[in-house]
């Protein structure tokens, strides 16, 4: 059977998923809120989606492969509706660990010694494989192939601890970049890894609380943004209100790609406005890599804001040189070279703005370089006399282990070729990337995760030892006691 690809033919890094959760002190239309929330997070994952809700007695889940609008029609939403709903969570997924199959769709639900639990996860646990292997040796049973189930199993093994205490212990055992929301029948837990690699925010709504990967999902349900969940923090929303504990020492290194590409432009993460950061990336890029040109063009949609910034700083006029069809949608097709090119032609068409012009073409990243070459060809076919390619991220040279699908290192153009060689491959007249210091200046935080650029992994690497945990140091029961 030919393996189908995701909508990766645009040759971009892909985020693993988006999470959303809501607690209300009084019965509310929780299913509809979750539906709206994950719809607002659709850009973070397009493979599968799901919603779990509870009325305090039963916990019901619906999930399937596909986009939110495809999976949750009115009939399916109706199956989640019932009187007394107060708690719910939702998830939209792009797979980086675990195959793209229905049984890996989230939320994951289990019956445990903590009652019925549902969990939704964004990111990766770098020591999940070692943990899973040890747990299997101890008699644990797994129903999926993704690393999210490792966390649920670890929480369940602490039979004498409350859900909050067990979750706090597990946060000490799992390494990597992750944001997680967990619900039982009465409350929501939200947590973030100690480095804060993956985002999570919390807002207030009608005396209750909403957790989401981005503020845009809070706004769509009418919630008021309160704050980001801090790195290493566990936050609980229940009948007593909102309370938290700092489980891990915070060492903030949020993922730089949230501001480069993943987050919606209207989001503010860790105090940094995404739209403003992308404008600054374009401005810095213009300072670092000027070009003699007549027009600045952005690659829709992800390169447009940086292109505006480049135009402002350079004084070169900005224009719409590429039209993106709003009806192209997803295409699940075999990724041969000819079909990749057809996908680009289906989605993008050049406009007359580039005819006879020297063009600065701005995009947010180059992964393999294949699609970049097709876009350069498009502009030349429309009469562009020169194409100077500018990229608002540094060269991607290393894979990500924290929830981004950046391809194997051997497939990354910048890992195997010089900038000049990439320029020749894509057929541009010149090619330049923003520098790592320039990117840091544009984002404006003291530290961010730049692992895919510099190979320094602040939240751990899967190949570092065997992923074992010093359980005696943490005061934890050994794995032999798994029940």
Characterization of this structure:
The longest helix is centred in the middle third of the chain and has 15 residues. Helix 5 crosses helix 6, helix 9 packs antiparallel against helix 15 and helix 11 crosses helix 12. The protein is globular. It is built from 17 helices and 23 strands. The strands form six sheets. A seven-stranded antiparallel sheet has the order 4-3-5-2-11-10-12. The protein has a six-stranded antiparallel sheet with strand order 6-7-8-9-13-14, covered by helices on one side. A four-stranded parallel sheet has the order 17-20-21-23, sandwiched between helices. It folds into two domains: 255 residues, Glutamine Phosphoribosylpyrophosphate, subunit 1, domain 1; 181 residues, Rossmann fold, CATH 3.40.50.2020. The two termini are 39 Å apart. A hairpin with a 4-residue loop joins strand 3 and strand 4. Helix content is 29%, strand content 24%. The chain has 483 residues and is of the alpha+beta class.
Short description, anyone?
With 483 residues, this protein is an alpha+beta fold. The chain contains 17 helices and 23 strands.
Task: Itemize the secondary structure elements and their pairings.
Blueprint: E1 14-15, E2 17-23, H1 30-40, E3 48-54, E4 59-65, H2 68-71, H3 74-80, E5 87-93, E6 108-112, E7 115-125, H4 128-137, H5 148-156, H6 163-173, E8 176-183, E9 188-192, E10 201-205, E11 208-212, H7 215-220, E12 224-228, E13 233-238, E14 241-246, H8 257-262, E15 268-269, E16 272-273, H9 274-288, E17 295-298, H10 304-314, E18 322-324, H11 337-347, E19 348-350, E20 358-363, H12 370-381, E21 386-391, E22 404-405, H13 413-416, H14 419-426, E23 430-433, H15 436-443, H16 451-454, H17 471-474
Parallel strand pairs: 17-20, 20-21, 21-23
Antiparallel strand pairs: 1-22, 2-5, 2-11, 3-4, 3-5, 6-7, 7-8, 8-9, 9-13, 10-11, 10-12, 13-14, 15-16, 18-19
Helix pairs in contact: 5-6, 9-10, 9-15, 11-12
């Amino acid at each position: 059977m030919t393996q189908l690809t995701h909508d990766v033919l645009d040759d971009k890094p892909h985020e693993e998923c988006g999470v959303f959760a809501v607690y209300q002190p009084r019965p509310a239309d929780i299913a509809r809120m979750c539906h709206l929330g994950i719809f607002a997070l659709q850009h973070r994952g397009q493979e599968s989606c799901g919603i779990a809700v509870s009325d305090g007695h039963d916990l019901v889940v619906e999930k399937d492969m596909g986009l939110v609008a495809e999976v949750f029609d009115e009939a399916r939403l109706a199956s989640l509706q019932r009187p007394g709903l107060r708690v719910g969570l939702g998830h939209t997924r792009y797979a980086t660990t675990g195959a793209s199959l229905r049984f890996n769709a989230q939320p994951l639900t289990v019956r445990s010694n903590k009652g019925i639990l549902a969990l939704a996860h964004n990111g990766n646990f770098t020591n999940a494989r070692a943990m899973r292997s040890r747990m299997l040796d101890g008699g644990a049973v797994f129903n999926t192939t993704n690393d999210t189930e490792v966390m649920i199993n670890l929480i369940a093994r602490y039979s004498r601890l409350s859900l909050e205490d067990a979750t706090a212990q597990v946060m000490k055992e799992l390494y990597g970049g992750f944001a997680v929301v967990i619900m039982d029948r009465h409350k929501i837990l939200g947590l973030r890894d100690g480095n804060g690699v993956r985002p999570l925010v919390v807002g207030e709504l009608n005396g209750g609380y909403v957790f989401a990967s981005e503020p845009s999902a809070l706004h769509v349900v009418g919630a008021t943004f309160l704050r980001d969940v801090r790195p290493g923090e566990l936050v609980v929303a229940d009948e007593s209100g909102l309370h938290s504990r700092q489980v891990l020492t915070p060492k903030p290194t949020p993922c730089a790609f949230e501001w480069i590409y993943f987050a919606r432009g209207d989001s503010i993460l860790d105090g940094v406005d995404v739209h403003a950061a992308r404008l600054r990336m374009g401005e810095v890029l213009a300072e670092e890599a000027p070009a003699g040109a007549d027009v600045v063009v952005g690659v829709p949609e992800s390169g447009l804001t940086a292109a505006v910034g480049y135009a402002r700083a350079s004084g070169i006029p900005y224009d719409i040189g590429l039209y993106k069809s709003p009806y192209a949608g997803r295409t699940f097709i075999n990724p041969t070279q000819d079909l990749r090119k057809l996908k680009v032609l289906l989605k993008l068409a050049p406009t007359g703005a580039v005819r006879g012009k020297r063009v600065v073409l701005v995009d947010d990243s180059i992964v393999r370089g294949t699609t970049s070459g097709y876009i350069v060809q498009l502009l030349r076919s429309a009469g562009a006399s020169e194409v100077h390619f500018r990229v608002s991220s540094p060269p991607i040279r290393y894979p990500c282990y924290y929830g981004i699908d950046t391809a194997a290192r051997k497939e990354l153009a910048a890992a195997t070729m010089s900038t000049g060689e990439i320029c020749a491959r894509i057929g541009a007249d010149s090619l330049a990337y923003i520098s790592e210091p320039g990117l840091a200046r544009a984002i404006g935080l003291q530290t961010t995760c730049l692992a895919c650029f510099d190979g320094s992994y602040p939240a751990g690497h899967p190949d570092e030892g065997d992923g074992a945990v010093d359980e005696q140091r943490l005061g934890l029961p050994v794995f032999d006691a798994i029940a």
